[in-house]
Design a protein that fits this description.
Layout (H helix, E strand, L loop, with lengths): L1 H9 L2 H19 L6 H10 L12 H34 L6 E5 L2 H8 L4 E4 L10 E5 L3 H10 L8 E5 L17 E5 L1 H12 L9 E7 L3 H13 L7 E7 L3 H8 L8 E5 L15 E4 L5 H11 L4 E5 L15 E4 L2 H4 L2 H5 L1 H19 L8 H9 L3 H22 L8 H17 L3 E2 L9 E2 L10 H5 L6 H9 L2
Parallel strand pairs: 1-2, 1-3, 3-4, 4-5, 6-7, 6-9, 7-8, 9-10, 10-11, 12-13
Helix pairs in contact: 2-3, 2-4, 7-8, 8-16, 13-14, 13-15, 13-18, 15-16
């Protein structure tokens, strides 16, 4: 049924062809009676759509036309009523303060729209709807950008969340001339952030822990990236990332990434299925393909029955009740992933803005005024995509820093907190292809501060903390 709906949606001309079938069959039915001229049987065939036969003559063809025409007419009436109802419903939705429209041409967009509290989806790609929040998620990145660039003025002072599937938002220039409050999101990055928040390694921070990530797709890339960025708890932790599936330049790049602590990254060139013994000492296996997952689960269970086995699935799937293990989980279900909160990430974006504004206050040696919000927004608009992503990454990790302090492991006066933050900041730059140079060069992605914390000046070390007390309170409220 789903395939039929997709086909009809892609080829709407077939709906019109189907609607003409009663007319064609009725024409033939009236014609073979021999009682009608050409224009008379054409008129009679049209009349059946209005449940108003012009003749008492009946045969199988006329009867078929009368029955199917009623279905077509009823369908048209229902479609008109549905359209009118949708227009009225959309009108009242647009009156809400949190009204949101998803501009889309794919199932992901409609899935997200169904989760909105006050919103709806549309395939309109020419003009924005009259709402405050816009989620642009056409399947093609170029189409998303075109929609935004053509309507930038109309989107003035409104929030726009744009999906990117191929374009790296960290490569985008500053949007200080942008009329809208523009944010980017990637479904695989949402998945990875959500995964490491749910299945974090906080309870393993005091011991060695080995993680296998299997896959050469975007899911595997995102899982490693956000593990590398966010699994940072102590200076003494020892996490091993074993990566299967990477080849060529990507394997070389990932394998040579610095960690700046005792964590290690090991690239395996062989096929994961060929060397089962390699999983004997692995603590968690993250399998990032939907196919052959059962084979992977069974292979790991044979050699390491106590391992955590995490398998990626777009739809909710459960293996917990099948296998004799309580450590098998699935992740990546779109119903859980694509929600209004996960896409908008209001608290995360606001935290990122606050961190960036705190940096700005430090550089200007000022304290935050009582009406700082407009100034904070202006500072945010000055940023390139990379710097925005950097501030958001800081916010994304901050719950860990706060929990470490709440548990008495770190304190504001503890220099280890500053060291951990410097490592996190460095890792963000490394994963985005920055490297050390004596002189900073943003265009070439060179930075003079990509050095061990101990080599930083006192002034640079202080930048890893939060400068302004007012801003710090606001950040704490959002965790």
């Amino acid at each position: 049924m789903g395939k039929i709906k997709k086909f009809i949606k892609k080829h709407p001309v077939f709906i019109y062809i189907a609607a003409l079938i009663p007319f064609v069959v009725s024409c033939y039915g009236y014609y073979i009676t021999g009682k009608f001229t050409f224009w008379e049987f054409v008129y009679a065939a049209i009349a059946v759509y209005f449940v108003n036969p012009v003749s008492e003559d009946v045969n199988a063809f006329i009867l078929f036309g009368e029955i199917t025409s009623v279905i077509v007419t009823a369908g048209i009436i229902l479609s008109v009523l549905k359209y009118a109802y949708a227009k009225i419903e959309h009108f009242f939705i647009r009156l809400k303060k949190d009204s949101t429209v998803v501009y889309t041409d794919n199932e992901l967009g409609y899935a997200l729209a169904s989760s909105l509290k006050n919103g709806y989806a549309t395939e309109n790609d020419s003009r924005p709807e009259k709402v405050k929040n816009h989620i642009v998620m056409f399947e093609n990145d170029a189409k998303n950008i075109t929609f935004y660039s053509q309507n930038e003025t109309r989107l003035k002072n409104q929030k726009v969340f744009m999906m990117m599937t191929e374009l790296d938002s960290t490569l985008l220039k500053a949007t200080d001339t942008s009329e809208a409050d523009l944010h980017f999101f990637n479904t695989n990055e949402l998945l990875a952030r959500d995964y490491w928040k749910k299945y974090n390694l906080y309870n393993h921070k005091d011991k060695s822990f080995k993680i296998a990530i299997i896959g050469n797709n975007d899911v595997a890339d995102a899982i490693f990236k956000y593990g590398y960025l966010n699994n940072l708890y102590t200076l003494e932790q020892s996490f091993e990332y074993h990566i299967w599936g990477l080849t060529g330049a990507k394997a070389k790049f990932i394998g040579n990434l610095p960690t700046d602590n005792k964590d290690t990254i090991i690239i395996h060139e062989n096929d994961a299925f060929e060397f089962a013994d390699a999983f004997k000492e692995i603590d968690r296996v993250i399998y990032c393909f939907e196919e052959n997952s059962i084979d992977m689960i069974q292979m790991v269970l044979y050699v390491n029955p106590t391992a955590e086995i995490h398998c990626y699935f777009k739809e909710e799937t459960s293996y917990e009740d099948i296998y004799d293990s309580d450590k098998i989980i699935t992740f990546g279900a779109l119903d859980d992933l694509l929600t209004e909160e996960s896409v908008k990430k209001e608290s995360l974006y606001l935290q990122g803005k606050l961190f960036n504004y705190d940096y700005a206050l430090r550089y200007s040696e000022r304290c935050a005024p009582s009406d700082y919000k407009k100034e904070m927004e202006n500072e945010w608009k000055k940023l390139s995509g990379f710097k925005k992503s950097s501030s958001i990454a800081r916010a994304d990790h901050y719950w860990i820093e706060k929990k470490l302090k709440e548990d008495g492991i770190l304190s504001d006066e503890d220099e280890d907190a500053l060291k951990i933050e410097h490592i996190r900041w460095s890792r963000f730059h490394f994963i985005n292809h920055w490297s050390y140079a004596e002189k900073r060069d943003n265009e070439k992605r060179k930075h003079n501060l990509l050095v061990p914390y101990e080599k930083l000046s006192d002034a640079e070390r202080a930048k890893d903390g939060i400068y302004d007390k007012t801003i710090k309170r606001e950040i704490e409220k959002l965790v």
